[in-house]
Known about the structure:
Heterotrimer of A, B and C subunits. The active site is at 79 (charge relay system), 159 (charge relay system), 183 (acyl-ester intermediate). The chain has a domain at 4-263: Amidase signature (AS) domain (Amidase signature (AS) enzymes), CATH 3.90.1300. Helix 8 links the parallel strand 7 (265-269) and strand 8. By secondary structure, it is of the alpha/beta class. It contains 15 helices and 11 strands.
Amino acid sequence: MSGMHDFTLASARDALKARKISAVELTNAHLDAIERLDGRLNSFITRTPDQARVAAKAADDILAKGEGGALTGIPLGIKDLFCTNGVRTTAASKILGNFVPPYESTVTSNLLRDGAVFLGKLNLDEFAMGSANLNSAFGPVENPWKRNGSDAKLVPGGSSGGSAAAVAAGLVLGATGTDTGGSIRQPAAFTGIAGIKPTYGRCSRFGTIAFASSLDQAGPMARNLQDCAILLESMAGFDERDSTSVNTPVPNYEAALTRGVKGLRVGIPKEYHAPGMPAEIEALWQQGINWLKAAGAEVVEVSLPHTKYGLPTYYIAALAEASSNLARYDGVRFGERVKGDSLDALYEATRAAGFGEEVKRRILIGTHVLSSGYYDAYYLRAQKVRTLIQRDFLNAFEKVDFLLTPTAPSSAFAQDEKPTDPVQMYLNDIFTVPASMAGVPALSVPAGLDAQGVPLGLQLIGKFFDEETLIAAGHVIEQAASFTHRPAIHAGVSA
């Protein structure tokens, strides 16, 4: 099975259809890598090797007949926020530690329909609340990248840190993520992979455990944008079971890769030149501008004046929704029950034992901003500012076709460098949150390494339902950057 970990999702798909490799071989190679490396990375919460081998054998039978879907035989990992029929789904929380859904989320149903082989459920920040994957009840995830000359354990970003680490380390060919305020894009940047947050409503939220319902959006994570495009086409689509799902055709995203950017206008938001941003990130941003300009794009400075309100607005709106969504986990309707002498005592004991520190903090803040006397001052005002943030993007897109920014204000930091102030941790999302608040699509592509040999990403933000232009522009950056680096911990490297 030598060379199995050199495949991208696209090249593996083509090799499977040409019968150059078998789905069983491909799946076993990745299961072996998980067994060998994940004890260190901790990217999986639940592994499903037996189910995966059965699915791979079925895929080979289908491929032998010259049939099959876009993903037949492709080994994927699923963020443990998507309900999977008969397979434990925890949201990385003790309160759902033994929850086995009797149904399948729409996103995972779509992937299974197209022939994907699921290798297991991937680790995350508890209920998707975090930017470093340090908040999981099942332990932190380690980034497979290392700083030059250091063995310090780096964070993979969050909340989709398990998905990012598994893809970067070659344990899966692709993974699902969810993005509420940057939880696909920031970990993609931290681990040197690609990730797409589609337009809100492009992918169904049915069967995805909610954090903030007006912000959560599923998306793909993979080694490059071609792989992400293949996954997104499978994941996306209208679903009448999700009231926020938008009934609009799903394009051939893979075909958009070769469109180029000649004649397009790229906007550079002046407000994203954040004070104190490392010089190497500024330099990479300028390099990205030069790459797009060389490919024929026109560079235009734009203003997003309400950007500075993005983070505080996000952490009011998102936490208010989290407080409401997590109220169901009380030991009566949902969640592992801890007995008490009264109903109130049962609630208190269940939630105290079941929720982690960060989840409790966010529930308390969210409950506060929704409480009598504070609703108008905080939540209602945040919704008004959110409208202004969205209007900024709409005004900018009257002048340009897409925006280019850094993905994150730093590269991956070490697990023991976690800020003690939660607000400092929240600042990791400073560049990703505004696009989430507006509901517009955005993606991250790896574009270089910092001085310590750790990946840095560039972010592209686009118009509603125009993921194709982002994929085309992102592919231009991918080709120019020629990011072929691999992390220190990788399935294709001896452990």
